[in-house]
What does this fold into?
Amino acid sequence: IAFRNLFKYKAFSLINVAGLAIGMTCCFLILLWVMDELSFDRFHENADNLYRAVMRVKNDNGVSTSIWGPFALGPGLKREMPEVVDFTRYVPAPQITLQHEDATFNEQVVWVDPSFFKMFTFPALAGDLETAFNEPLALVITQKMAKKYFGTDKDVIDKVIKMSNRFDYKVKAVIKDIPVNSHLDFDILAPSANLKYVGYKEDNWLWPNSITYFQLQKNVSYEQFNKKITKYIESKMTKFTFSEDLFLQPLTKIHLYSDYAGDRSRLGNITHVYILSIIAVFILLIACINFMNLSTARSMNRVTEIGIRKVVGAHRTHLIAQFYGESIFLSVVALVIALGLVELLLPSFNALAGKQLSHDLTGNRSVILGIGLITLITGIIAGSYPAFYLSAFKPARILQGSSKKASKSAVLRRTLVIIQFTLSVILIISTAIVFFQLQYIKNKDLGYDKENLLIIPNRTGQAIHKRHKTFRHELMKNPKVLGATATSQNPTNMEWATIIFNWRGKNPDDQILIHANSVTVDYVETMKLKVKVGRGFSEKITSDRKGAILLNEEAVKVMGFTNPLEETVTVGKRKLRVVGVLKKFHFQPIHKKIEPVIITTGRIRGGYTIVRLHPDQMPETIGFIQQTWTKFFPTIPFDYHFLDEDYDKLYRAEERMGTLLNYFSVLAIFIACLGLFGLASFTTEQRTKEIGIRKVLGASVPGIVMLLGKDFAKLVMVANIIAWPIAYWVMTNWLQDYAYRININWLIFLLTGVLSVFIALFTVSFQATKAAMANPVKSLRYE
It folds into this structure.
């Protein structure tokens, strides 16, 4: 009977199966995405007992959190807290030049303790991880690095890689490439013991210069342990006056629950997981509503079947099983189609989401279970009302032709259409607001010109520091080079801040955290920063090279200066004269408010070279810069990128979320319109005789189309009235994550309302026009 009904009502079956298949496809894709996000760092054997230390600094500007802590934190906590099994420091260094024979590259080396390999599960392909760091000049590299330097990942143990053109390090182990669902992302590890040669001390509690991971005993509650160590760090860093405490963050929560300073891990956002999960439920619910709507609409064609079944002895449970069987059967058919669509669409979805999701179901029980549950739940939800509604028909009423149930069915269908379009309108409004917020971020005035700025990461080493000024002057000889400067921090995300600055009138008890950036004197002109008061730095003024500073407007406000150009700021015994105030400029992501910043001049160690290029003949100019770089720094490879690429990376996750939201919103509307199309077909079929009589009495085709369409338009308008306040509340809360955000314009809601009504009318109009243009003679001979 299920097969018979599937082919008897081909149009309704096609709409049902198509809606369910598309809904399930969306749900499966989102399921794969969500499971990938939730899987981060769970492959480690000790995952449930591993934690990362997070420092929390309370000052007069508020509270700031950072994953960077003192080098002595790990040994100190292990020594004094019996709950700690082990620790490892994790210190990503600025990129260092590595060389093997003719292969020379700039790489980021991460310095770790030997316990790193005991705590984390990164399988070795060659070498012994337990003894790898027994020698000081040892490296552990990934497969990728082995192939990059040696052309193979076989027989590379004890091969030499020269570091910084000075030290010969030996490869002592090769590990598998880091899984994509690891928040740690590295390719080369070296022993942290060597950091003592560059100023790292085991008893240094003063400076936050390392990231520390801990392994706790299995029976220890980290929440209770956090209460125990809250003030531990403050008791050690007694030379500082600010309030500082410490807490541990579970390893499995790092990917989705981190918004801490200094964190450059592979980070996600739990809000995005919630958003896509809700969208998946919305889309599947819309598809299920389609099924229920069309099933109840068809119910009057099956009442005789129900009546006869009951008369010959069918129990209500038999009928419920029959209708559930039909709905689950359709759900299974939709499942087969959905799996084919997932296979087809997964590569494109991966490209949109920036993932490497796999559709291989055989090795993932969770995915199989999830898909099975979604299929079963879809069938049950979609068939629930038809099953209980149709099975409740009384044989006597059926044979009498009672229309009481039909009227109840019509009310239910209207309600379900309202729910469908309420969900769809919420998605449309949310998509529009996300789009406008992202456009606002892209087009917001940053306070400087980010276009055509070439960034060259500087490498540590005296050779660069000594020759960098001459290098910049050489670049300026090219007319297509409009400016060249050096900076200690990336202009898109200056993280380092300190409380070491003092000024006249400052309360000694105030703990004010101020960002600081060291630059060369041509920084303001190269970045095209806007000076509000005073001037920028000048190479012609000798005192500007070491004794001058620039403040931003927020720093002036915090310091309480009325005439900032008459003030000085002290660092220890050094007095720095304020020579200018810069207009507001963003030096952190727009999620954060502009904070106080001081820009100083001096020697830049590491950091970045920034070159402003003329947009014409850019490839030739870059070639010139590379030649000049090779001339001055022949042993250091030339790397570069553009500043706007760094800016785009900051908001790549939001852009991907916005793109996914666009596609899923369109699909939700499409599924809802499929159901509306089916209902319109049913409605016109039920009113065929009425339409014929109206045409005979002189009704026009547009008049009949509007007659049939206005009922659906009313339902969509009601859906808008319900959806608007919900969407406003949801998106207002979402925008709170941004310090700088758009104001929600009510025009978005009005346009969404008009669009949704137009879509509904357009969907209905096809069937309505077809019915209105039919020959009334055929309509009146309907029976």
User: Anything to note?
Assistant: The longest strand covers residues 50-59.
